[in-house]
Amino acid sequence: MLVVVVVVVLALRGASGAVAETGIGVNWGTVSFRKLKPTTVVDLLKDNKIGKVKLFEAEEDVLKALMGSGIEIMLGIPNEHLSLLSSSPSAADMWIQKNVSAYMSKHGALIRYIAVGNEPFLTSYNGEFQNFVIPAIQNLQESLVKANLAGSVKLVVPCNADAYESTVPSQGAFRPELTQIMTQLVQFLNSNGAPFIVNIYPFLSLYDNGEFPQDYAFFEGTTHPVIDGPNVYTNAFDGNYDTLVAALSKLGYGQMPIVIGEIGWPSDGAMGANITAARVFNQGLVNHVLSNKGTPLRLNSPPMDIYIFSLLDEGAKSILPGSFERHWGIFSFDGKAKYPLNLGLGNKELKNAKNVEYLPSRWCVASPSSDMNNVANHVRMACSVADCTTLNYGGSCNGIGEKGNISYAFNSYYQLQMQDARSCNFDGFGMVTSRDPSVGACRFILGVKDKDSDSSASQITTTYKYHLCILLTLQYEDTTVCFNVSELSHDSQDPQVLTFQHVFRCQCHGTAPKPFLSF
Ligand SMILES: *[C@@H]1O[C@H](CO)[C@@H](O)[C@H](O)[C@H]1NC(C)=O
Ligand SMILES: *[C@@H]1O[C@H](CO)[C@@H](O)[C@H](O)[C@H]1NC(C)=O
Ligand SMILES: *[C@@H]1O[C@H](CO)[C@@H](O)[C@H](O)[C@H]1NC(C)=O
Ligand SMILES: *[C@@H]1O[C@H](CO)[C@@H](O)[C@H](O)[C@H]1NC(C)=O
């Protein structure tokens, strides 16, 4: 077995001449309330010499900002679009025209890959998307040919590591119900010279499974190695990677290039999600892949590229998976490096985003005199709209006391409302202060001005005023709280975008109207 592997590696090296170094990229997600301007983010990427970025969808302002930057792009298509793209060649043509061709002029965006779906085979989707993938790929490939882009843009499918399974890496195989689709997929990828994309999350293995040995998640040796015949695995990444290698081998494509589409560690919001762990994991990962050691089944042949998840924290993400979900960034939402990290790209440490325009140094806190018994509903409302996940068990603000909790909630909401004075009222329980209320590692955020607060952008935003009482079911608990949504901003370019401007608690009478249906 070992001998065979060595021969294969030699043959590969002989063919390619030199071993290429793993490319280090990042995932740039934009599910945030207040986003940095895309141009600020592109400068952040450039300052950190990050030359590869993965996007989850084709957002115009993001792609425009990337034009001429020289940064290579893997552009995602959300799963929800796969059904249409699989059934309609003209929809695929349109997608390529509007979302790819339009940006690929001479000094345009370097779109290298299109990620067709995002983990479309995820077990929890129960097969909802899986039959759309191959037909969508076929349509999109035709469209690329028509657009003369088939030579420069490759279609790929980022899979979650749950697409394959095994007790030991060498026995890896794709899930039985995926065998046929995976066979078609890898044949397509191979004929196109495209890599297999996989997302690997040792953090989630640790989070979901109390038995998972913590040190096996990192890259610093373990007291629980996995012994697989002659091969010894000391970290979850290698074990997982080789399980995929074995699964690909079973289909006859054991040498298919592999790209890690997402990998990272959150820094807040759960036990085991903290700054130290995130730094140790990400630095260990980068050092590991750049060492070119490879894995037992692919000696000296690390992944082609890895895309760290993620670039920035995304404060508006669903916390269904856990509170950590909003804290994957190597930078916080405002582009500040959370910890020193050497990406092996030339800088010894991360550089912060430049020219970030913060709101004035003002925070909203609980006023000292107020009776704290009556604020629970205010806190619940604030945290249902803004992000309070750092307050949770294991979070960086978990130990700041009851009053601290209230202030944190008030402030998160106030910053989200662009420091609108009315949003710090809370029936008189809130007050604005110019002293930073941050305590220790618990940082009270200060909002940033984003594109929505530019005067140029105001032309496209129409504000409709509503005086409504709506029912909102909170994500945290089954409690129903009423809010008075007195203003909803309605982006006239994209009717699906609604922004809450001022949300106040109110009395609900009778059945609440449903404002979302009125557009
Ligand atoms: C381009 O991508 C966006 C974002 O995924 C999508 O909403 C839009 O429908 C796409 N455009 C076309 C013409 O399909
Ligand atoms: C950070 O997380 C790691 C493991 O993920 C854990 O061992 C460590 O105790 C945590 N540190 C703190 C300060 O909570
Ligand atoms: C602060 O809020 C968090 C999250 O809801 C909770 O776990 C913690 O117990 C609260 N602290 C106090 C002192 O009420
Ligand atoms: C909602 O708030 C607006 C503005 O403060 C007020 O005029 C309106 O009466 C309120 N509606 C309800 C139902 O409380």
Automatic annotation (TrEMBL):
<dbReference type="GO" id="GO:0005886">
    <property type="term" value="C:plasma membrane"/>
</dbReference>
<keyword id="KW-0326">Glycosidase</keyword>
<dbReference type="GO" id="GO:0098552">
    <property type="term" value="C:side of membrane"/>
</dbReference>
<dbReference type="Pfam" id="PF07983">
    <property type="entry name" value="X8"/>
</dbReference>
<keyword id="KW-1015">Disulfide bond</keyword>
<keyword id="KW-0336">GPI-anchor</keyword>
<dbReference type="InterPro" id="IPR044965">
    <property type="entry name" value="Glyco_hydro_17_plant"/>
</dbReference>
<keyword id="KW-0472">Membrane</keyword>
<comment type="similarity">
    <text>Belongs to the glycosyl hydrolase 17 family.</text>
</comment>
<keyword id="KW-0449">Lipoprotein</keyword>
<dbReference type="InterPro" id="IPR000490">
    <property type="entry name" value="Glyco_hydro_17"/>
</dbReference>
<keyword id="KW-0732">Signal</keyword>
<dbReference type="GO" id="GO:0042973">
    <property type="term" value="F:glucan endo-1,3-beta-D-glucosidase activity"/>
</dbReference>
<protein>
    <recommendedName>
        <fullName>glucan endo-1,3-beta-D-glucosidase</fullName>
        <ecNumber>3.2.1.39</ecNumber>
    </recommendedName>
</protein>
<feature type="domain" description="X8">
    <location>
        <begin position="362"/>
        <end position="444"/>
    </location>
</feature>
<dbReference type="Pfam" id="PF00332">
    <property type="entry name" value="Glyco_hydro_17"/>
</dbReference>
<feature type="signal peptide">
    <location>
        <begin position="1"/>
        <end position="17"/>
    </location>
</feature>
<dbReference type="InterPro" id="IPR012946">
    <property type="entry name" value="X8"/>
</dbReference>
<keyword id="KW-0611">Plant defense</keyword>
<dbReference type="InterPro" id="IPR017853">
    <property type="entry name" value="GH"/>
</dbReference>
<dbReference type="GO" id="GO:0005975">
    <property type="term" value="P:carbohydrate metabolic process"/>
</dbReference>
<dbReference type="GO" id="GO:0006952">
    <property type="term" value="P:defense response"/>
</dbReference>
<keyword id="KW-0325">Glycoprotein</keyword>
<keyword id="KW-1003">Cell membrane</keyword>
<keyword id="KW-0378">Hydrolase</keyword>
